[in-house]
Amino acid sequence: MADPSTDYWLAPSEPPSFTPHNLTGTSPCVLLCDHASNRVPQRLKALGLPASELERHIAWDIGARGVALQLSQLLDAPLLMSGYSRLVIDCNRPLSSPGSITGTSDGTLIPANQELTAQERAERAAVFFHPYHDAIRALLDQRQAEGRPTVLVSVHSFTGQFGGKSRPWHVGLAYHRDRSVGPALIEALRRDPMLCVGDNEPYAVDDASDYAIPVHGERRELPCALVEIRQDLLAHESGQHLWAGRLAEALRTVLPNILTPSSSRIAS
Ligand SMILES: [Zn+2]
Fold this sequence. Notes:
By secondary structure, the chain is of the alpha/beta class. The chain is built from seven helices and eleven strands. The chain has helices at residues 6-9, 51-54, 64-75, 118-145, 182-189, 212-218, 237-267, and strands at residues 18-21, 29-33, 79-82, 104-105, 108-109, 151-158, 161-162, 165-166, 171-174, 197-199, 224-230. Strands 1-3-2-6-11-9-10 form a seven-stranded mixed sheet, with helices on both faces. A two-stranded antiparallel sheet has the order 4-5. The protein has a two-stranded antiparallel ribbon with strand order 7-8. α3 packs across α7 and α5 (182-189) crosses α7. Mean pLDDT is 94; it is low at 263-268. Bound molecules: zinc ion. Zinc ion (ZN) binds at residues 34-35, 61, 156.
């Protein structure tokens, strides 16, 4: 979606609001990374936050971009990544959600997000939310038109400490209406007895607080799930590499079973 306010919001030197990667990849998996970046457009002046706050998990999913890129390469899968911080606008929340442009996150007040007008909200959505989701929609439409099966997997990371509590899971699968992907991946990952795998932990998917899986996956009746990896395990490139390999192997194990029933469902 071309929007006249994009030129106002993004200087020529700034990256686009989303990045498509390997869209012609041959895998049935389509990967999303909604919280890939902690970048804030220059016009928003770091949202009034010190740089240290923008390095925290409140601004992005630490390590998720590296995992998603390597997973895309290992599977030869298309990947779409958002280009700006979720504190600008959260690409995995409905626009009607209070968390869409949040005023506070994990105890931090976001100065530039206070008392926004409807116009300001609409402009952020037009520049940083809709183009990303329009691109996902276009890719999924194209694959459907070509009769190609699609399994939608969204890659996220979560903070190991929240609300004063430690989270024990190394990785979690979140899912809701579609039960073909999440539980199968949990079973595959649990074959490694050293891994603590969350089943809809630390988060589950729901319509009020999620966007990509309900809208692009469930509404299209595509097999779909969201994977969450604990951020401290992704702090370095070696961890991102390890987890991309682990997820690629788990996906390769479960894809044949997932695709058989879903292909016939799409065809009917
Ligand atoms: Zn996330």
